[in-house]
TrEMBL record:
Positions of transmembrane segments: none
Species assigned in the record: Phenylobacterium montanum
Name of the featured protein: SMC-Scp complex subunit ScpB
Span list, region Disordered: 183-213
NCBIfam families noted in UniProt: SMC-Scp complex subunit ScpB
Comp. bias intervals (Acidic residues): 190-202
GO process annotations (BP): cell division; chromosome separation
Basic and acidic residues bias: start-end ranges: 203-213
Pfam families for the chain: SMC_ScpB
This protein's UniProt keywords: Cell cycle, Cell division, Chromosome partition, Cytoplasm
């Protein structure tokens, strides 16, 4: 003789353990012959009504799912690692070792035109910041690294920057360095030929990239 309460328990166990929704036929194939699947599902659905987990029927298949009003609790934010391109790695290394440095100086060291997109990525990731302006004609924007840069590469200060070979191991440079790349002593946080942005000034460095896409 089939016990309705036991049938309900067995349906509950099957649905919890299932990797995908189950139909009434799927359940019937696993339960003793004559078990009232329909009544068991209705009773179980009523039992879970208003709870954190509900029993629902989707496309004639049954499953347990989080209550709709609690779906926001299941949201998970993940940070996806962004792999820097070779150009971005080299640009970051140049900024780290030559700061404060302008776009024109980055180009002179790398020997190729600097892409605005490359610097934008470094700014977006918080590895590089706009420091100020060079006290030269045109007052070009200067770039420097951030505390995030130090944290990312496990450095206490800029004085702990490694040599060229170690830079490759840390991922600061690709395996093929520009022929004219040099590794000077990191510059201080202040420079005699550098001035801060004026109060309320929003740095406009688009002119530094005129003619580039």
């Amino acid at each position: 003789m089939n016990d309705p309460g036991e049938t309900e328990r067995r349906i509950e166990a099957l649905l919890f353990a299932a990797s995908e929704p189950l139909s009434a036929a799927d359940l019937a194939g696993r339960l003793p012959e004559g078990a009232d699947i329909g009544a068991g599902l209705m009773a179980l659905q009523a039992s879970y009504q208003g709870r954190g987990v509900n029993l629902v029927c989707v496309a004639d298949r049954w499953r347990f799912q989080t209550a709709e009003d609690l779906a926001w609790l299941m949201t998970e934010e993940r940070e996806e690692a962004r792999r820097l391109s070779k150009a971005a790695q080299e640009t970051l290394a140049i900024i780290a070792y030559h700061q404060p440095v302008t776009r024109a100086e980055i180009e002179a060291i790398r020997g190729v035109q600097a892409s605005r997109g490359t610097i934008d990525v470094l700014l977006e990731l918080g590895l590089v910041r706009l420091r100020g302006r060079r006290r030269t004609p045109g007052r070009p924007v200067t770039f420097g690294t951030t505390d995030t840069f130090l944290e990312h590469y496990g450095l206490a200060t800029l004085g702990d920057l490694p040599g060229a070979a170690e830079m490759k191991a840390l991922g600061l440079l690709g395996m093929d360095m520009p022929a004219n790349f040099s590794v000077p002593t990191p510059g201080s946080d202040l420079a005699d030929d550098e001035e801060p942005f004026e109060d309320g000034e929003t740095p406009e460095f688009h002119q530094d990239f005129l003619g580039e896409e």
